[in-house]
């Protein structure tokens, strides 16, 4: 039976936290059947499988004969896969918010998010052959970064302290505010040309992407710490879904950042 504990929370949550996994630090529940690393790992594996299912669905719809149309860029797209891509994009945007505000839906909303992610990137890989190699390269780099971060955390060489988390939030906040200021400056007479020079500068764009990858990597390390705290504080086993989806959410975020960096380097 779940009980309410008066323990002191080991982590603080804030605006710049991972919006999914920060829920672990916002509860005082404890249980005899608590979160385990094995349980979180199994659920992470489940979400990865759902990403693969999304990819398989994209390949299936691409292979099924159906009506096609030609886009303005001259790309031939099947109606079925295009409609599915539109639906996947909507799910991709909405499902994380559902998971944030309705934690109990994570087994479903998390599944839909992962499947839509797999479908969207496989869809673009199907209709843009030159993009397919970038996706595979981004996947390899993402896996390599994730494994390196996990090993660094498990070895204890990198300590996720309050200062570490604060630094990640400050860096993330700085990146967001800088981007907003550039957008605002673009619409201000006298500043728009300078803002455009910065925005269109390929070197600056690549630097922003690299910083983005560093930020997500730091957030992943913080996610590992929150999972450790959840296990040590005996949070109820139901929170394994939150922990697993929180980690996968950050991994997908990392993958998106890596894809963006590769695209910018290729354009440059």
Structural overview:
- This protein is 72% helix and 4% strand.
- Helix 4 (129-155) packs across helix 7, helix 5 (162-186) packs across helix 6 and helix 7 packs antiparallel against helix 8 (239-267).
- A two-stranded antiparallel ribbon has the order 1-2. Strands 3-4 form a two-stranded antiparallel ribbon.
- It is mostly helical.
- It is globular.
- It has 8 helices and 4 strands; from the N terminus they run ββαββααααααα.
Summarize the structure.
The protein has 268 residues and is mainly alpha-helical.
Helix/strand-derived category reads mainly alpha
Strand content: under 5%
**Tally of contiguous helical segments:** 8
Low-confidence stretches: 1-13
Overall 3D shape: globular
> Order of strands side by side in the largest beta sheet?
1-2
Report the major sheet: 2 strands, antiparallel
Total strands: the figure is: 4
| Helix and strand run | EEHEEHHHHHHH
Whole-number mean pLDDT = 86
What's the helix and strand layout?
Blueprint: E1 3-4, E2 29-30, H1 37-63, E3 68-70, E4 76-78, H2 79-101, H3 106-127, H4 129-155, H5 162-186, H6 192-200, H7 202-232, H8 239-267
Antiparallel strand pairs: 1-2, 3-4
Helix pairs in contact: 1-3, 1-8, 2-3, 3-4, 3-8, 4-7, 4-8, 5-6, 5-7, 7-8
Tag the structure with descriptive keywords:
268 residues, two-stranded antiparallel sheet, 8 helices
């Amino acid at each position: 039976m779940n009980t309410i504990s008066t323990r002191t929370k080991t982590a603080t949550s804030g605006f710049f936290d991972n919006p999914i996994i920060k829920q672990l630090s916002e509860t005082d529940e404890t249980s005899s059947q608590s979160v385990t690393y094995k349980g979180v790992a199994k659920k992470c594996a489940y979400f990865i499988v759902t990403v693969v299912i999304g990819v398989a669905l994209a390949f299936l719809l691409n292979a099924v004969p159906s009506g096609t149309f030609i886009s303005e860029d001259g790309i031939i797209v099947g109606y079925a896969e295009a409609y599915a891509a539109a639906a996947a994009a909507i799910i991709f945007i909405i499902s994380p918010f559902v998971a944030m505000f309705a934690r109990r839906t994570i087994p479903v909303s998390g599944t839909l998010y992962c499947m839509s992610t797999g479908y969207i990137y496989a869809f673009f890989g199907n209709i843009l052959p030159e993009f397919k190699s970038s996706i595979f390269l981004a996947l390899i780099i993402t896996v390599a970064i994730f494994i390196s971060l996990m090993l660094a955390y498990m070895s204890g060489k990198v300590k996720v302290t309050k200062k570490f988390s604060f630094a990640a939030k400050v860096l993330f906040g700085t990146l967001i505010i800088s981007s907003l200021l550039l957008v605002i400056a673009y619409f201000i007479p006298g500043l728009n040309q300078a803002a455009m020079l910065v925005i269109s500068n390929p070197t600056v764009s690549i630097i922003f992407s690299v910083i983005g990858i560093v930020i997500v990597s730091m957030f992943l390390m913080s996610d590992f710490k929150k999972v450790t705290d959840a296990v040590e504080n005996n949070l109820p086993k139901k929170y394994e879904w939150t922990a697993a989806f929180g980690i996968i959410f950050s991994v997908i975020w990392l993958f998106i950042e890596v894809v963006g960096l590769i695209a910018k380097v290729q354009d440059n």
